Amino acid sequence: MLYQANHRSYRKKANYKPLVFFLILLGLAGIAFFFRQDIKNLFAGDRRLLLEKERKLLQEGIVKGEPKEGEIKEFKSTAKDFVTSNPKEGISYHYAALSGYYEFLLLGFRFDSVTLSKIAYTGFQEFLEQDSSYLPLVEDSYRQALRAQAIDPEFLESTDNRYLIAFGESIRQKLSRSALNKLLISIEPEKLSPELKSGYAWTCLVGSALSGNTEFLKKILSRQDISGSLLLSARESDFLIALSEFRAGQYVSSLNYLRRVKNTNDDFLTGSSKILEARIFYYQNLSPKAIVLLEEYYPNSGDRKEEVLQLAREILSKNQTLKTKLPIED
Q: What does the pLDDT read at residue 190?
C-alpha cells in the first residue's frame, strides 16, 4: 500500500512534562535532604541576627527598670524557634535562658535597695513564701543556662550565662551559700551585658550578706560601675555589712555597723538593727540586755511584734530565770 508523501500520523505522542517535573522535584528533595543541616544553619544564622537585634531593643527598657512585655514576648518566640532549628549549640539554650530571665522581670521583680535589704535580712525563703510565682520562670531559665554551659562552657556569651546560673542558684537555695559566693566571684562583671549588671550586683550583695563574705561585699559596694545602679544609701550599705559580719561571727564589728544604721525613724532598717542587736547580745551570753532591748523596741515595732516575741521566747527558753514585761504568753 502506498502512502502519500505528506501523510501525518495520528498516533498520540507521549507527554513527558509530568515526569520531568517529578524528577526535578525528586532532585530538589534529595538536595534538601543531604544539605538539610546547612539549610537549617542558614535560617538559624538569620534568627540569631534577629535575636541580637531584638535584644538590643529590649535592653534599654530593662536597664531603666521598665521592661516591655511586647519586646520580651517577641524575643521569647524567636529564641524558641532558634533552639528548635539549632539544638546543638550552647548559644541556643542561652537565648532561651535569657528569655526566661526577662519574663521573670516582667512579673514586677526589681533589683532595688529595699528588696535587697529585706532579703539580705530574712533570706529568700520568706520572700518565696509570699510569692512563689517567680519560681517556674527562674527554674526554666536556670535549666536552659545549665544546658548551654554543658554543651559549650566557653561560648562568647558564657559570662552572661554564668550569671544566669548564679541567679538561679540564689533563688533556688539548693547550693550552699559559700559555693554560691564562689560562683559569683568567678564572674567578670566587665564582660556582662548592660541589662544584667544591676542584677549581678544585687545578687552579689545578697549572697555576700547571707554568707558572711564581707570582703567581697565591700569590694562590690566600692565599685560604683557595678553597684552604682542600685542607688544604695550609706545606711543600707552599713546594714549589709552588719549582716555579713553577723553571719561571719564578727559580732563586735556587726554591732558597730548596726549602731550607725539606727536612727529615730522606726523603719525597716532601724527595727531590724534593734532585733539583730538583741540577738547578738543573746549569742554573747548577755541575755538580760537582749531582753531589755526587745522590751524597748516592742511598743513601736508595728507589724514586727511577733518577730520580737519569737526572739524573746527563744531567749527565755534558754534562760528560765529571766523575767520580761513582754506578752509572750498571749
A: 93
Does residue 199 contact residue 162 with C-beta atoms inside 8 Å?
no
Residue 283 CB coordination number (10 Å): 13
List phi, psi (to 5°) of 319. Answer: -135, 75
Domain boundaries, the chain: 38-261, 262-330
Q: Which residues contact 323 (CB under 8 A, 6 or more apart)?
A: none
Per-residue pLDDT band for 18 (boundaries 50, 70, 90) equals low
Q: How far apart are CA 245 and CA 153, in angstroms?
A: 34
- Neighbouring residues of 81: CB distance < 8 A, sequence distance ≥ 6: 47
Q: What is the pTM of this model?
A: 0.82
Cell for 169?
Answer: 542558684
Q: Report which of 113, 286, 280 is spatially closest to residue 202, judged by C-alpha positions.
A: 113
Q: Model confidence over 227-270: pLDDT tens digits? A: 999 999 999 999 999 999 999 999 999 999 999 999 988 899 99
187, burial (CB in 10 Å: exposed 0-12, middle 13-18, buried 19+): buried
8 against 199, higher pLDDT = 199
Q: How many Å apart are CA 40 and CA 12, to the nearest integer?
A: 46
Inform me whether the pLDDT recorded for 124 exceeds 50.
Answer: yes
For residues 147 and 179, is the Cβ–Cβ distance under 8 A?
A: no
> Other C-beta atoms within 10 Å of 54: how many?
20
What's CA 313's distance to the chain center, in Å? 36
Residue type, 205: L
Domain 38-261 fold is 1.25.40
Distances (CA, A) of 17 to 12, 13, 21, 22, 246: 15, 12, 6, 9, 86
Cα 297 to Cα 111, 163, 173, 195, 305, distances in angstroms: 30, 40, 32, 41, 9
Write down the pLDDT at residue 175: 87
Over residues 200-218, the mean pLDDT reads: 95
